[in-house]
């Protein structure tokens, strides 16, 4: 995609007006729990912008999200209105027992198997923009795209992001904001400030019909320091300022804009060391490791961790003998007080919750435990908070607030995450026929 810098602001305005009179800005605050805003004063949080926004918005007391309650599946449901079994983004990391993809995530929009809000607006000739949204690399429907992506976690990743973004976009934003690209590429609050400044500038030089923005520091600080920690609260208070700046910029440019503030999941504290469940599958003879490299040589059934829960994938899903061995292992883990397993479900339970199609079993962890996705012997990560538990868990509820023309302030109660995309599609006046959710208004 080429940056259409030669088009003037008036031309963008005409295209936006032709598509719809109700542009939408959706801001995701990764890991924001509903009570963090609803009970901000009680929690000792100073959130003037978010609490003021809530008073003028229709807001949910909780959003029931997807299996598993992790960032990439949830964010894809937010823009499609379907569960992972239909949109295809089944976890953060891809299932990769041989580690051929070197820990790769579901970064690429081509992996989404159903139409998105980006597609619907683009097909109606509306302008689409996005900063840091998961699963957006390579999207042909995002006119101005600065996607979320990393590989080596080195300075070269900045060059990679510039190359993957819309041609010329990052240099222009860097020049007009005075912030170099590396100011964005990290997970601390200062990096979200950089993303916010870039998003504000994008709004100024081309107000899009639909824009998605993903801010990540709250999630990072809750993992590192724990939910309700002083550090997490400070990160959220900075995000409050970021949101206030974004909303003010959007409304200054287009008073009729609809603002949706969302999150992907909640959070729970972690008190036990992270567990690599591969060892249990090795001990049960379901995985064979090379004795020297500890790499997987062969597998009949393998765990696919998602923070607070773990999917189990069978190499041959119809092999009843392997199924029986997995059931025996899961029952053993559930009975072991040190294994951290609270419950498990079979294929029928996964289908009921819309989880990954290639998973045959899934086990949920007890509060305080977390799992990793490493198939090789590594030191466990030190976490103070996590998510990924079954969506039945109230602690995993996400946030939704929306304000704009014709939307009356009201409490919506608990909602289904699948209803958010159809709601925005209705406001944008675009079709989203594959969505399973329904408009909230």
Summarize the structure.
InterPro entries: Alkaline_phosphatase_core_sf, Phosphodiest/P_Trfase. α9 (189-205) runs parallel beside α11 and α10 (217-225) packs antiparallel against α11. The protein has helices at residues 9-19, 34-38, 48-56, 71-80, 84-87, 117-123, 156-164, 169-177, 189-205, 217-225, 230-253, 278-283, 320-335, 347-353, 420-428; strands at 24-29, 58-64, 128-131, 144-146, 210-215, 258-262, 268-269, 287-289, 296-299, 301-305, 309-314, 341-345, 359-365, 385-386, 400-403, 410-416.
Folded structure, characterized:
With 441 residues, the protein is an alpha/beta fold. The protein folds into two domains: 15-268 and 393-428, Alkaline Phosphatase, subunit A (3-Layer(aba) Sandwich); 278-382, Gyrase A, domain 2, CATH 3.30.1360. 34% of the residues lie in helices and 17% in strands. It has helices spanning 9-19, 34-38, 48-56, 71-80, 84-87, 117-123, 156-164, 169-177, 189-205, 217-225, 230-253, 278-283, 320-335, 347-353, 420-428, and strands at residues 24-29, 58-64, 128-131, 144-146, 210-215, 258-262, 268-269, 287-289, 296-299, 301-305, 309-314, 341-345, 359-365, 385-386, 400-403, 410-416. The strands form four sheets. It has an eight-stranded mixed sheet with strand order 4-3-5-1-6-15-2-16, sandwiched between helices. A four-stranded antiparallel sheet has the order 10-11-13-12. Strands 7-14 form a two-stranded antiparallel sheet. Strand 8 (287-289) and strand 9 form a beta hairpin. Helix 8 (169-177) packs across helix 9 (189-205) and helix 9 (189-205) packs parallel to helix 11 (230-253). It is globular. The chain starts with 8 loop residues before the first helix and ends in a 13-residue tail after the last helix. Mean pLDDT is 93; it is low at 1-20.
């Amino acid at each position: 995609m080429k940056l259409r810098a030669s088009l003037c602001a008036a031309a963008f305005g005409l295209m936006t007006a032709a598509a719809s009179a109700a542009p939408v800005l959706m801001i995701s605050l990764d890991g924001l729990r509903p009570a963090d805003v609803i009970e901000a004063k009680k929690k000792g949080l100073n959130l003037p912008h978010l609490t003021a926004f809530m008073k003028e918005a229709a807001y949910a007391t909780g959003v029931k999200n997807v299996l598993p309650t992790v960032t990439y599946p949830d964010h894809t449901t937010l823009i499609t209105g379907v569960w992972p079994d239909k949109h295809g983004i089944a976890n953060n990391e891809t299932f990769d027992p041989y580690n051929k993809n070197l820990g790769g995530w579901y970064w690429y929009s081509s992996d989404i198997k159903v139409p998105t809000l980006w597609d619907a607006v683009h097909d109606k000739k509306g302008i689409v923009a996005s900063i840091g949204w998961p699963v957006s690399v390579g999207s042909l429907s995002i006119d101005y795209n600065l996607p979320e992506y990393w590989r080596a976690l080195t300075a070269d990743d900045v060059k990679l992001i510039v190359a993957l973004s819309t041609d010329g976009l990052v240099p222009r934003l860097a020049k007009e904001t005075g912030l170099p690209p590396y100011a964005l590429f990290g997970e601390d609050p200062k990096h979200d400030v950089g993303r916010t400044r870039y998003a504000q500038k994008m709004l100024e030089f081309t107000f899009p019909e639909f824009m998605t923005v993903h801010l990540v520091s709250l999630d990072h600080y809750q993992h590192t320091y724990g939910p309700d920690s002083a550090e997490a609260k400070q990160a959220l208070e900075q995000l409050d300022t970021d949101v206030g700046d974004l909303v003010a910029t959007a409304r200054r440019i287009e008073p009729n804009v609809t603002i949706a503030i969302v999150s992907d999941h909640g959070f729970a504290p972690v008190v036990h060391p992270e567990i690599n469940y591969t060892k249990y599958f090795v001990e049960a003879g379901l995985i064979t490791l090379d004795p020297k490299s500890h790499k997987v040589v062969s597998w009949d059934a393998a765990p696919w961790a998602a923070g607070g829960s773990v999917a189990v994938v069978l190499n041959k899903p119809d092999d009843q003998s392997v199924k029986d061995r997995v059931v025996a292992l899961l029952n053993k883990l559930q009975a072991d007080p040190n294994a951290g397993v609270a419950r498990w479900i079979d294929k029928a339970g996964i289908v009921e919750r819309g989880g990954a199609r290639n998973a045959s079993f899934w086990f949920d962890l007890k509060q305080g435990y977390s799992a990793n996705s490493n198939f090789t012997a590594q030191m466990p990560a030190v976490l103070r908070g996590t998510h990924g538990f079954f969506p039945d868990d109230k602690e995993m509820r996400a946030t939704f607030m929306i304000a704009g023309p014709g939307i009356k302030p009201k409490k919506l109660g608990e909602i289904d995450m699948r209803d958010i995309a159809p709601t925005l599609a209705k406001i944008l006046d675009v079709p989203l026929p594959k969505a399973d959710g329904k408009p909230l208004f």
